[in-house]
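Renewal narrative, Specific Aim 1. Our central claim is that a sequence can be written position by position from structural information alone. The example that follows is taken directly from our test logs and has not been curated for this report. It begins with the structure tokens describing the chain, in the order in which they were read.
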């Protein structure tokens, strides 16, 4: 077996700080579990701009296309606000997503028992919650043509076009059904087939893929507005939710916040299967570079650590090892360890970024 390869792109702000904690886990896995990764590290975002004058060097892009998985910290910061749009740090991340053609964005919303008092919802609604939102990431209204602002008579008109092809819907539907088979075997597809043509096609194609290839998975359809309501009323009714780019943008943020802090939330963006049968993949915490706390040892590394756990599960076929990492996170939270963002009314044991990483390794 060849050694699995991982490209680490720490990026800007708290990115390098939280990534250092993932490194500790990787080192531990090598030393204690005999699991070696071929790890390389490179620059992205503002850090890449400072060195190369571009937020993503071509060599880094090429490397990202070769490896089994990319793990990214965060990009951006106030220092780069003045830059031209074409070289802004965020463009580095967008280029990675686009050229790797990462069409399925996975956002788990999982509630850790120790933090369930953290949610805006009642304990019984969120305790034990574990759902996965899959958002189509490369098409839909953010990309459709025609688009723009132009003059019609004597007023301006702003135009965006929601456009989906059958194959774009089919491939993300397959991602959802595959995911469901590894989880609770249930998919809910959300659109607005009552008012949108693309919604009608979405519903039809998801149903067709289901009937032809995944009849064993339980499938339901819901209008996205009703879905938003149900997500806050009783989120545990869902397992995997699959939806388009726009609705997914809203619903995944909504679902994420059912469970608490931004510092806890991982994500994965997956593309087409590679030669080894596993998808092209980029893993990253949902949070940004958090310039307000960067360099102070305050950042919560858990979102990045859980993103690495997703890589273990979805890119390296190491589901048991992923569970091991997730259990360790649960353990330290149950022990009361809290970075500042997790410090609620009930208090806890304050820890720094590296204190949290060390405790997770120990657990
Ligand atoms: P971006 O545009 O890059 O998404 P943003 O300003 O929307 O950035 P973040 O950089 O994620 O969002 O920061 C939002 C708030 O959440 C900030 O106050 C930040 O300090 C806090 N925050 C984000 N990530 C973490 C973390 N890992 N640990 C602690 N606090 C965090
Ligand atoms: Mg943001």
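The sequence written for that structure reads:
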């Amino acid at each position: 077996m060849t050694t699995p390869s991982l490209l680490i792109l720490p990026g800007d702000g708290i990115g390098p700080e939280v990534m250092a904690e993932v490194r500790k886990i990787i080192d531990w896995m090598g030393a204690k579990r005999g699991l070696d990764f071929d790890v390389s590290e490179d620059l992205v975002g503002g850090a890449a701009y400072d060195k190369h004058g571009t937020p993503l060097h071509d060599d880094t892009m090429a490397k990202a296309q070769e490896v089994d998985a990319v793990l990214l910290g965060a990009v951006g910061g106030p220092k780069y606000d003045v830059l031209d749009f074409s070289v802004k740090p965020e463009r580095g991340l967008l280029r990675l997503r686009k050229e790797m053609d990462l069409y399925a964005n996975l956002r788990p919303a999982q509630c850790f028992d120790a933090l369930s008092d953290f949610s805006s919802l009642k304990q019984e609604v969120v305790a034990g919650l574990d759902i996965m939102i899959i958002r189509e990431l490369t098409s839909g209204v953010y990309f459709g043509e025609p688009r723009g602002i132009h003059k019609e008579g004597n007023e301006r008109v702003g135009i965006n076009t929601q456009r989906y092809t059958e194959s774009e819907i089919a491939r993300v539907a397959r991602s959802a059904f595959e995911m469901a088979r590894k989880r609770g075997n249930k998919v809910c597809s959300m659109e607005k087939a009552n008012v949108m043509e693309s919604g009608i096609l979405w519903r039809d194609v998801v149903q067709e893929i289901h009937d032809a290839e995944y009849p064993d998975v339980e499938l339901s359809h819901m209008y996205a507005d009703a879905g938003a309501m149900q997500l806050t009323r009783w989120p545990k009714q869902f397992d995997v939710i699959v939806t388009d780019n726009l609705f997914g943008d809203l619903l995944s943020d909504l679902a994420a916040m059912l469970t608490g802090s931004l510092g806890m939330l991982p994500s994965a963006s997956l593309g087409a299967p590679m030669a080894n049968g596993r998808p092209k993949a980029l893993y990253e915490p949902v949070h940004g570079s958090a310039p307000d706390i960067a360099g102070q040892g305050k950042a919560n590394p858990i979102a990045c650590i859980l993103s690495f756990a997703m890589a273990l599960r979805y890119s390296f076929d190491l589901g048991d090892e992923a569970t091991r990492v997730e259990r360790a996170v649960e353990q330290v939270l149950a022990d009361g360890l809290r970075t500042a963002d997790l410090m609620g009314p009930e208090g806890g044991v304050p820890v720094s970024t590296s204190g949290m990483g060390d405790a997770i390794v120990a657990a």
